[in-house]
Write a structure and sequence with these properties.
The chain has 166 residues and is α+β, with helices and mostly antiparallel strands. It has a single domain, classed as 2,3-Dihydroxybiphenyl 1,2-Dioxygenase, domain 1 (Roll), CATH 3.10.180. 21% of the residues lie in helices and 41% in strands. It has helices at 19-30, 82-90, 104-113, 135-138, and strands at 9-15, 35-40, 46-50, 53-54, 58-66, 69-78, 93-100, 118-124, 127-132, 141-145, 155-157. It is globular, with a radius of gyration of 15 Å.
Length: 166
């Protein structure tokens, strides 16, 4: 279990159109991985909210660690979310950085006072995530999270038999 300091950058995330191609590219060209892959969908993600309403989108999420920083790839699948907004406005690329806070509600209140409300959020097992409306000032979205424990991945890339096991 990794330990983070309050406010530390713990994740950098990229939006992709084709998860399999992105995984293959990162692994083959840079040996980034192995990747743990999850499907986020209503029912799997609790308190799933997009711009103040219940979220109806699904997406693929792949994560790999490099030291204490996690790289995340996100591919929107169905519905509509801030990930689709990003693809429409910018195409593939940097979407957000995630900052660690043990008390996300306290951090959210502080950011809201500075003019950065939550635009999308949810909880996957014990892991909370809150995306803030920061793009206009930062050029990317800031996400707040608590680094909570999550279940085992649905699958891994590359598969263990291809040299991706740990």
């Amino acid at each position: 279990m990794r330990k983070f300091q309050e406010g530390a950058t713990m994740q950098v995330a990229v939006i992709v159109r084709d998860m399999e191609a992105a995984l293959r590219r990162h692994w083959d060209q840079c040996r980034i991985g192995p990747w743990d892959i999850y499907t986020f969908a209503p029912g799997k993600v609790q308190n799933y909210i997009y711009r103040g309403k219940p979220a109806n989108h699904t997406c693929l999420i792949a994560v790999a660690w490099s030291g204490d920083t996690q790289l995340e790839l996100i591919q929107p699948l169905t519905g509509y979310s801030i990930y689709d907004e990003h693809l429409e406005r910018h195409g593939e690329g940097l979407h957000h950085i995630k900052l660690y806070y043990s008390d996300c509600q306290k951090a959210i209140a502080g950011y809201a006072k500075r003019g950065y409300p939550v635009i999308q959020c949810g909880r996957f097992d014990e892991d909370e995530h809150y995306y803030l409306e920061t793009e206009k000032d930062f050029g990317y979205i800031v996400e707040l999270g608590n680094a909570g424990h999550i279940r085992s991945a649905e699958r891994r890339y590359p598969p263990a038999e291809a040299g991706g096991g740990v």
